[in-house]
Amino acid sequence: MSKTAIVIGGTGVVGREVVEQLATAPHIDKVVSLARRSVENTSPRVINHQIDFDNLAAHAQLFQGVFFFSCLGTTLKQAGSIEAQRRVDLDYQYQCAELAAAQGCAHYLLVSSSGANRHSPLAYSKMKGELEHRVKQLPFESVTIMQPSLLLGERSEKRTGEELAAAIMPALCKLPGLRKMRPIRGDEVARKMVAVSADPRGGVTTYSLDEIFC
């Protein structure tokens, strides 16, 4: 049986690494990367599609696969408003998950956040928690949720705040009680996701920060 992995957010810190690692993974035959802009990839196992996330139903046929990696995300600064950020981090991702489930995808893997909580007063944590709650209700055989902290890695745009945090957080997180907040590289999260996809547990599995480090 041909095993296809679908990836959204393949241009981000984690998604880019996921695509690269899946392209050489022995349990994957084909990688379908769905993105808002054109993406170049040299591997013959990777097929890139530029899609309109405001008209996802038109691309439903592209969500046929065994694995679905949801790595999409944006920042408040990029989006311009909380409502626009929710559209990307919650609405788009959930609509994609629905399409993948409807196409019979077996294993859904999500990059969430360490603070995800649908009851949180913080907008970002709340939208991440809402997404986690919703996708758990979909008929996937396996749901894997990664909850990393600050993600380190190359980005297409400059994020001054994140760069500053990346510089000081490693030292700060050596203090008692702050270890769970330490940063993690995008390739480390991707490595864990790809490894888990090769040997899914079934049901819902959530990996907190310490469980993501390989």
CATH superfamily membership? NAD(P)-binding Rossmann-like Domain
- Say what the CATH topology is: Rossmann fold
Low-pLDDT runs of 5+ residues are 158-173
The share of residues in helices is 25-40%
Shape: globular
Topology as a string of helices (H) and strands (E): EHEEEHHEHEEHEHEH
> What share of the residues does DSSP label as strand, in percent?
15-25%
The CATH architecture category equals 3-Layer(aba) Sandwich
Question: Can you summarize this structure?
Answer:
The protein has 214 residues and is α/β, with parallel strands linked by helices. It has helices spanning 13-22, 76-79, 82-102, 123-135, 160-172, 186-198, 209-212, and strands at residues 4-8, 30-35, 46-50, 67-70, 107-111, 142-146, 151-152, 184-185, 203-207.
Question: What brief labels describe this structure?
Answer:
214 residues; alpha/beta; Rossmann fold; seven-stranded parallel sheet; two-stranded parallel ribbon; 7 helices
Task: Report on this structure.
With 214 residues, this protein is an alpha/beta fold. It has one domain: NAD(P)-binding Rossmann-like Domain (Rossmann fold). It has 7 helices and 9 strands, in the order E-H-E-E-E-H-H-E-H-E-E-H-E-H-E-H. It has helices at 13-22, 76-79, 82-102, 123-135, 160-172, 186-198, 209-212, and strands at 4-8, 30-35, 46-50, 67-70, 107-111, 142-146, 151-152, 184-185, 203-207. The strands form 2 sheets. It has a 7-stranded parallel beta sheet with strand order 3-2-1-4-5-6-9, with helices on both faces. Strands 7-8 form a two-stranded parallel sheet. Strand 5 (107-111), helix 4 and strand 6 form a beta-alpha-beta unit. Helix 3 (82-102) runs parallel beside helix 4 (123-135). The protein is globular.
